[in-house]
Structure prediction request, 316 residues.
Amino acid sequence: MIRQVQFPLSRLAVAALLLALLGACSMLGGTEEPPPAFYSLSGVGPVPPVTASPAVRSNRAPTLVVNPPRAAPGFDSQHIIYVREPYRLAYFAHSEWIDTPARMIAPRIVAALEGTGAFRAVVLAPSVAASSLRLDVDIIRLQHEFDHSSSRARFTLRAYLVDSDSRQVLAWREFDEAVVAVEDNPYGGVMAANSAVQQVLQRLANFCADAAGNWQPAPETSQQTGEAPKRGKRKARQEKRDFTGIDGLNDGQHPGPGEPLLQSRQEYFFAGLAAFAVELAVSKSQLMTHAGSRSWYQEDLVTSWKGPFSSLFLAR
Prediction:
């Protein structure tokens, strides 16, 4: 009888335990985090007019290559950064950019520069196109700030315009824009960030157009004009030395058909030495024929010319 009373109680305990576990599982399932929301820097909205005076597109207009923007540490990810205290960066847990700000802004820079009409072409690097100017861009910050009464999005960008041939910085400037957010939430910050980026890029385009208008191209190279390449002074001297003979050998002219071309310094030296020895022998024989004695021409040659080969005249 005692065993019949304990058996139903054990079943009730197991059933109660199973119900408790099912309830705990249902509670855990209800705490799943929502998927993150993704936002972009598409620049949707009216584009302000260009205030710079664009140059007429021609063959003399510079070609501009835009290097991929570089982002400062902390702003090179897809996190949407916000700031509540100075120097302390945080990011939203459920809101992200669809790509890094640097990659999203790069094509917008190209589009803004093309709209000025100051460049023959604007190309995003890497590219095999030859360029006259290069634009380097650094993204200093893109953040949603909550340290004011009304939150705002701030975008700061630094640009360098560089001459591709001389590699000299022609001009540089830092641009900063802050736009008040209509809502103190991630979406409000994204809308304000798009507006700030658009204003900065418009100012950047005007800056580059003005700098390109003051840029003076270098003299046209042989590749642009189709002319034969000009030889440098050093190369011209080398070619002249290669094709010009020793006095009495080639008369300073190019070698004729069948004549050997002396190209090395050693050949020039020995050829000159041989010619000099021949001249000495001829001079010595002529002097001995007309003088009749050795003392006269020895003394005359020693007093009139004392060179590195003067000992040849005094040889007995």
Q: What stands out?
A: The first strand starts at residue 37 and ends at 39.
